[in-house]
Amino acid sequence: MKDKNLHIIQKILVNACRFLLAAAFIFSGFVKAIDPLGSQYKIQDYLTAFGMISWFPSFFPLLGGIVLSAIEFSIGIFLFFGVKKQLSSLFALLLMAVMTPLTLYLALFDPVSDCGCFGDAWVLTNWETFGKNVILLAAAILVFRRKALLCRFITEKMQWVVSLYTFLYVFALAFYCYYSLPLLDFRPYKIGQNILKGMTIPEGAKPSVYESIFILEKNGQKQEFTLENYPDSTWTFIDTKTSLKEKGYEPPIHDFSMISVTTGEDLTEDVLTDVGYTFLLVAHRIEEADDSNIDLINEIYDYSVEHKYKFYCLTSSPEEQIELWKDKTGAEYPFCQMDDIALKTMVRSNPGLMLIKNGTILNKWSDENIPDEYVLTDKLDKLDLGKQKPVSDARTIGYVFLWFIVPLLLVLSVDVLIVRRSDRRKAGLKKLGDSGPREEEKED
């Protein structure tokens, strides 16, 4: 009796750890899949921090992010349904065995500000991430050692269907969000947000204190300076960076600053307080931007000029690259320079298009979904395009969930009504066959 109770306790504990791992991997894989470019940027940050960015081809961060999201999501689904026990428990253990010491290094030396394991949906500090991974590693060890105790929800005959569909689903989701935009936007530039309000510090809140560090060169020697000890004009400016001196309240948007390439004027307030419409073409690196839909972009600029709307292209590229873009595409719209990270955060597309009015984001489009002349048939205030796009995260999550769960429910129904019934019938016939001879022997 005592051994039986111990076995029950072990089974409950192992399956509790299994569901904890499943939830973590499903969530982590899902938020990476719906934001593949965000995963790409985070992997690039890792490779840059460790000096390995030149070791891999340019497509590796994007492909690696999509593959990682597929692996994590699939491991979570396999653990949840209790299929592929050996494979899923082994991969869960291997991933946690790699990520736990890595996040300890991040916590100690802080080469990357956050690990990005849950994308922008849930940002943890490096120490919080390490603590989370220690718990998940302990759970993964227990599940791997006691995988025989995992409850199975799908028979072995049907588990291949679940496995195949899971892979197809997560890859389809990732590529859809890559070519359009993330289905769920967890960043401060989501539709409906007011940029100016997002930059405002609440009354009484203490702001963070930053210090500007200037890197200058003289006689082949580089040196860092602050405003207090800035040298004379015999030094040549090389670069600038900002360091945090004192942590305080940091508004969600703190790096939105539009500087005109032509005049050097700061246009931020002028654009964000304009009660009219403004199109913002976002190309974080103009030399890497896709120019396949440049005709549509030029048409929207012509449309803006015709109806007296503002239109700016925002980029972090230097002027020489901007001039090359103009020569290549015939662009006549004005350019503003902005922080590269801010541009990547605004629109997950290069280029992407954003429509704002009085500082509020009304709509965003990827390069593949830019509106054409068949939509822009009148002034924006007379078109649905000029109204704020209705966004419901709950409805989106519901659709995404149904697209995944409905086919799996069909598989479960087939598994329960056909496969398991067939297995029980075969087991019954086998039992009957085994008992037949014994009955005859008894009669003899």
From TrEMBL:
InterPro entries: Methylamine_util_MauE. It is a multi-pass membrane protein. It is found in: Membrane. Keywords: Membrane, Transmembrane, Transmembrane helix. One of its GO terms (biological process) is methylamine metabolic process. GO terms for cellular component: membrane. The chain crosses the membrane at residues 12-31, 59-83, 90-109, 129-148, 160-181, 397-419. It comes from the Bacteria. Its main location: membrane. Residues 11-143 form the Methylamine utilisation protein MauE domain. This is Membrane protein YphA (DoxX/SURF4 family). It comes from Bacteroides reticulotermitis. The lineage of its organism: Bacteria, Pseudomonadati, Bacteroidota, Bacteroidia, Bacteroidales.
